[in-house]
């Protein structure tokens, strides 16, 4: 779930992203408050983010407040084929809490797969891509 708190400009916003618990409840729900910048050129589209402290979005008791270091995604357009692109994702989360490193490292790949699966579903639903 993502809640948008403040839009500075059409391409700059603050949002709170919440995750569900993971690994059969071993990892509690998390939330992240990020400053996000979106850029588009003729060659690419990118989202760039970093966590911030935002007074209008205090921590809540049912989520552990995580932190995203500089992160983002860039979608590079293929000039020869407008129906294809190359997607590069960089994440550097600190999910906080008292979890062993191996539990965290085993959970992140699954959450990324889930993210991109949901992204694909949303893009199909909006008619942005076909099956």
What does this structure look like?
It comes from Magallana gigas (Pacific oyster). This is START domain-containing protein. May be involved in the intracellular transport of sterols or other lipids. May bind cholesterol or other sterols. This protein has a single domain (2-99), classed as Alpha-D-Glucose-1,6-Bisphosphate, Chain A, domain 4 (2-Layer Sandwich), CATH 3.30.530. It is built from one helix and nine strands. The protein has one helix at 101-125, and strands spanning 2-9, 12-19, 30-40, 44-51, 64-65, 67-68, 71-77, 85-90, 93-94. The strands form two sheets. Strands 1, 2, 3, 4, 5, 7 and 8 form a seven-stranded mixed sheet that branches. The longest helix has 25 residues, at 101-125. The mean pLDDT is 87.
Quickly describe the structure.
This protein is an alpha+beta fold. It has one helix and nine strands; from the N terminus they run βββββββββα.
List the helices and strands and how they pair.
Blueprint (H helix, E strand, L loop, with lengths): L1 E8 L2 E8 L10 E11 L3 E8 L12 E2 L1 E2 L2 E7 L7 E6 L2 E2 L6 H25 L6
Parallel strand pairs: 3-5
Antiparallel strand pairs: 1-2, 2-3, 3-4, 4-7, 6-9, 7-8
Number of domains: 1
Outline the low-pLDDT stretches: none
Shape: globular
Distance between the termini: 25 Å
Order of helices and strands: EEEEEEEEEH
Fourth-tier CATH superfamily name: START domain
| Biggest pleated-sheet summary | 7 strands, mixed
> In percent, how much strand structure appears in the residues?
35-45%
Q: Report helical residue fraction.
A: 10-25%
CATH topology: Alpha-D-Glucose-1,6-Bisphosphate, Chain A, domain 4
CATH class: Alpha Beta
- Evaluate the radius of gyration: 16 Å
Q: Structural class, from helix and strand content? A: alpha+beta
Number of strands: 9
What is the residue-mean pLDDT, rounded to a whole number? 87
Determine the number of helices (DSSP H or I, runs of at least 4 residues): 1
Domain START: 26-128
GO molecular function: lipid binding
GO biological process, one term: lipid transport
Function: May be involved in the intracellular transport of sterols or other lipids. May bind cholesterol or other sterols.
